[in-house]
Amino acid sequence: MVVDDHPMWRDAVARDLSEAGFEVVATAGDGAKALRVAPAAQPTVVLLDLQLPDLSGVEVTARLLAGGGGADGPAPRVLILSASGEHRDVLDAVKAGATGYLVKSAGREELLEAVRGVHRGEAVFTPGLAGLVLGEYRRLAAEPAPSQEEDPAPELTRRETEVLRLVAKGLEYKAIASRLGIAHRTVQNHVQNTLTKLQLHNRAQLVRYAIERNLDE
Predict the structure, then answer these.
(1) Which of 58, 67, 109, 174 is deepest in the core (most CB within 10 A)?
(2) Radius of gyration of the chain (CA)
């Protein structure tokens, strides 16, 4: 699904994707429409502009991921496609759960490869931004958690911890299921249970939690 308020740009991106063999299941010119059509369209990847006329791309990202992909599907992965390369915009998008961030000056082939990477579950960023994001995660992980002593984290089961370790390493749910010898739906259930126990909202927050506890090593 392509979400951008500039019709010519939106149509051009959708056309490039279609010509490359992707199925464009929906387009939208604002955040409200994107949130309205996503559950029925069930896109696996959403290309999303940050500057929309109604909602910010950051808010749309968070709400897309919180709402899942509809009754039967997982939440889509979000690739931000923005004119802004400002560090604050990038970090806000990633904290909301975006899997990738590409500036609009990227070429056609770079865009197509970014979509393929995000679809595989890889973190994809415009060159120069990946180090920024990793550095921010490490900085956040190094900060003390003032409420931790008063409100200790709930205890996870052994299987939930195993799944969390693999999520932190960047594995997709299908790969995790194959490695652990369990069903794909079981992996999703473990992730959802873990999010609920830890009072987190998306995969990005889950990865940060794992990094804070060195579970990604």
Answers:
(1) 58
(2) 17
Q: What CA–CA distances, in Å, run from 94 to 11, 16, 102? A: 25, 25, 12
> Between these two residues, 187 and 152, which has the higher pLDDT value?
187
CB 126 within 8 A of CB 101: yes
Length of the chain in terms of residues written: 217
SS (H, E, C) the chain: CEECCCHHHHHHHHHHHHHCCCCCCCEECCHHHHHHHHHHHCCCEEEECCCCCCCCHHHHHHHHHHHCCCCCCCCCEEEEEECCCCHHHHHHHHHHCCCEEEECCCCHHHHHHHHHHHHCCCCEECCCCHHHHHHHHHHHHHCCCCCCCCCCCCCCCHHHHHHHHHHHCCCCHHHHHHHHCCCHHHHHHHHHHHHHHHCCCCHHHHHHHHHHCCCCC
Classify the C-alpha dihedral 105-107-112-117 as positive or negative: negative
Lowest average pLDDT, out of 76-80, 140-144, 199-203, goes to 140-144
pLDDT band at 194; cut points 50, 70, 90? confident
Q: From edge to edge, which strands make up the β-sheet containing 124-125?
A: 27-28, 2-3, 45-48, 77-82, 100-103, 124-125
Produce one character per residue of 116-143: b if its CB has 16 or more CB atoms within 10 Å, e if not. Answer: ebbbebebbbbeebeebbeebbeeebee
